[in-house]
């Protein structure tokens, strides 16, 4: 039996907790070609009115609608999230999950030139491969530390805390890990509310492996113990846990 690495805590990297009122979302518009049954336009929101958004009425409706969303996105089977020879799509799935949960997570982000103009108070339109480019999981790790607070994200430090917040409040949890080797893929995974059937893995009442949903080399609608504490893998230089109401 494999041993888990304890405690399952996030590394103490410095994060910017001061919100910047000038920074804005780098959002592209939904595209008719961006669909669950297509590999096209992954950088844009899905244009599908049948996909449910999170119901923000109360914690119960939030959790129930998250379960419906996970079922609808069906990351295990839908073409949009299937790995290719070159790529996996953890960032695309995490973006879609957050988008329909009405929480901002970037799938594209401002170029350095565009960001400079925005922080100077200039208006900048999000234009793909001109003012914005794709952002991948290792860079999203750094984005959380620099910009997460400006978009309502709160840093957490244990998987037990993040699972409890998600369970109690119907919010959005994220684990994001950065690769040691520059240019190689990190990983990003939503932490999701437990259901009657799908549970986090606990020891002595403490969450060791939270309930997650992911695209990657293997896609899971739900998993906990299957990938252990993957964020502690020696491939990664650091990891962060974040939560959003």
Describe the structure.
With 245 residues, the protein is of the alpha+beta class. It has one domain (59-244): endopeptidase fold (from Nostoc punctiforme) (Alpha-Beta Complex). The protein is 23% helix and 18% strand. The protein has helices at 59-73, 90-100, 112-119, 137-147, 159-169; strands at residues 108-110, 132-134, 154-156, 172-179, 187-191, 201-203, 206-209, 212-214, 220-223, 236-244. The strands form four sheets. A four-stranded antiparallel beta sheet has the order 3-10-4-5, sandwiched between helices. It has a two-stranded antiparallel ribbon with strand order 1-2. The chain is globular and about 50 Å long. The termini are far apart. Mean pLDDT is 94; it is low at 1-12.
Q: Which strand order does the major sheet show?
A: 3-10-4-5
Find the count of extended strands (DSSP E, 2+ residues): 10
Rg on CA atoms, Å: 17 Å
- Indicate the CATH topology: endopeptidase fold (from Nostoc punctiforme)
- Tell me the series of helices and strands, N- to C-terminal: HHEHEHEHEEEEEEE
Architecture in CATH? Alpha-Beta Complex
Give the tally of structural domains.
1
Share of residues in helices: 10-25%
Q: Any idea of the CATH class?
A: Alpha Beta
Low-pLDDT ranges:
1-12
In round numbers, the mean pLDDT is: 94
**Discrete helix count:** 5
Sheet with the most strands, sense and barrel status: 4 strands, antiparallel
- Into which percentage range does the β-strand content fall? 15-25%
Q: Which geometry do the CA atoms define?
A: globular
How does the helix and strand content classify structurally?
alpha+beta
Distance between the termini: 36 Å
């Amino acid at each position: 039996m494999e041993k888990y690495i304890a405690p399952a805590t996030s590394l103490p990297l410095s994060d910017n907790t001061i919100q910047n009122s000038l920074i804005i979302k780098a959002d592209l518009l939904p595209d008719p070609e961006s669909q669950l049954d297509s590999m096209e336009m992954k950088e844009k929101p899905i244009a599908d009115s049948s996909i449910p958004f999170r119901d923000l009425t109360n914690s119960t409706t939030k959790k129930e609608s998250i379960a419906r969303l996970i079922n609808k996105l069906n990351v295990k089977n839908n073409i949009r999230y299937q790995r290719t020879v070159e790529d996996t799509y953890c960032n695309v799935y995490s973006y879609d999950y957050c988008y329909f949960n009405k929480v901002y997570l970037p799938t594209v982000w401002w170029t350095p030139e565009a960001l400079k103009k925005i922080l100077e108070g200039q208006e900048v339109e999000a234009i793909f491969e001109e003012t914005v480019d794709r952002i991948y999981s290792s860079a999203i790790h750094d984005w959380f530390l620099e910009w997460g607070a400006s978009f309502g994200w709160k840093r957490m430090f244990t998987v037990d805390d993040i699972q409890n917040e998600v369970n109690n409040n119907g919010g959005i949890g994220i684990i994001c890990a950065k690769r040691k080797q520059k240019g190689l893929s990190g990983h990003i995974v939503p932490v999701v509310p437990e259901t009657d059937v799908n549970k986090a893995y606990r020891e002595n009442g403490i969450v060791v492996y939270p309930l997650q949903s992911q695209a990657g080399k293997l896609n899971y609608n739900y998993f906990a113990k299957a990938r252990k504490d993957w964020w502690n893998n020696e491939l990664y230089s650091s990891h962060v846990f974040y939560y959003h109401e």
